[in-house]
Amino acid sequence: MKFEKLSDNKIRIILTMQDLTEKHIDFHSFMSNSIESQNILLDMLEEAKKETGFDTENFNLKVEALAMADTNFIFTITKVYPENTSSTATKAEFAEKTPKRRFTIKRKSLTPSSATQVVYMFNCFDDFCNFLAFLKKSNCVSEINSLADDVLLYNYKGGYYLLISNIHRDVVSKINFYSNITEFAKCVSNSKSFASKLVECGTLIMENNAFEIGFKHFV
Questions:
Q1: CA–CA distances in Å: residue 172 to residues 4, 8, 120, 140, 194
Q2: What would the CATH number be for the domain defined by 117-217?
């Protein structure tokens, strides 16, 4: 089990199939949001608190569960505040008034870690830049630059689409890449047909390699 504290309000927990077996966790049963699954999650959060200091006591939590094709399982847990909560003091007051942790669990789209071509949609260009900044902070620039032969960025109907083709199957870092990018962008399921539409109708913003260009000029 691996813990990654993404911010003061968000943490990622990565489990392997061996972790699930050792902890007697059934992923599909976990998605049912049963009392048993919540108890399992509480145990994971207690361990996360010991490892990273991420404290979820008295907070409502949003849990996003993602099953990877390589049998890794990723849980992203976010503390939920009211929309009008802005200051630290107000957030603290909110936590004190919340009687216990409540969970909202949803399944995220399966990331095709065995695919040779994928398309991801960013809502805006800033989201793409924020993703690159996160990768740079994680010290994995060189590995990401060698992820695939072709990495293009398109603008299409107001969205920004990253078209990644000829992905290298032997790049170990792609597992972390897929888990990270789901925090900033959404995977387009029909990537092959949509890629053709991007080439035909989209506006090419960055030619190969969009990662290298982005790292050089925008982060």
A1: 18, 28, 20, 11, 26
A2: 3.30.70.1950
